[in-house]
Amino acid sequence: MSDQEVMASIMRDHIMNLLREGKRIDGRGFEDYREIEIKTNVIEKAEGSAWVKLGDTQVLVGIKVDVGEPFPDLPESGVMTTNVELVPLASPTFEPGPPDENAIELARVVDRGIRESHAIDLEKLVISPGKLVRVVFIDVHVLDHGGNLLDASGIAAMAALMTTKVPRVEYNEETGELTKLDEYDPLPINHIPVPVTFAKIGTAMLVDPSLDEEMVMDGRLTITTDETGHVSAAQKGESGSFKLEEVMYALDTAVEKGNYVREIIKRSL
Question: pLDDT tens digit string along 80-117?
Fold first, then answer.
């Protein structure tokens, strides 16, 4: 057994012993988030941006709004795309190069939560149906990995989108000429989806797992809901399983904690 495996075994035993006493390694309750700090408009040249600190985790999101062609099957809808960069300095487990499976999963969960909740009114981003639409790029940069990247990234993405200003344009249908104006409109936002992540360790379900808890968890479950309680994304991670009652508990708690986080996002704007 390697030194790393020995340390992981010792850490798991320590965390399990605490959980049996109803305690977490950092003193939080099972349903408590770590402190959430949000700063918006932190990137001057981006159309929208936000920095989020969730415990020891730090994430920076920049929003770029460009003009492009719509998808052929969605001629009357703008385009949204999400990319994630795991900065190598953020964690010894992150390596330079193309996105790995962790970055791809993170991007997909953030993207799905926003897209399926119809958080952005993409129909209002059409300039000329079938020809020209707005393209919204969500770029997530993980600066410091202290656990629960899913929630930190989702929170930062929504805070950044809610501060985004879209430059007005004039489009000449006859000539195809596009003129950008020095005027801006807010990005049309319908909903505020918030992901809430649970780590299952033994029989305990823990909200907002720290990195130490993630290292020893049996399973992970992320549920994204909006202010109406609509579930727009759900993602299971790790090999452990969840009982039906655990999933139902997670769903109810995700709605409750989502409302809590949503108010923090609103206050940051």
Answer: 999 999 989 888 888 888 888 999 999 999 999 999 99
Q: DSSP letter at 141?
A: E
Retrieve residue 43's tokens: 């990137």
Model confidence pLDDT, tens digit, residues 46-64: 999 999 999 999 999 999 9
Domain with 251, as residue range(s), is: 26-268
Cα–chain center distance at 137: 14
Instruction: Tell me the β-bridge partners of 120.
Output: 189
Give residue 193's region: left, alpha or beta (phi > 0; psi -120 to 50): beta
- Structurally, the chain folds into a number of domains equal to 1
Residue 94 CB coordination number (10 Å):
17
Do the domain assignments include residue 19? no
Burial environment of residue 257 by CB neighbours within 10 A (0 to 12, 13 to 18, 19 or more): buried
pLDDT of the residue at 175: 87
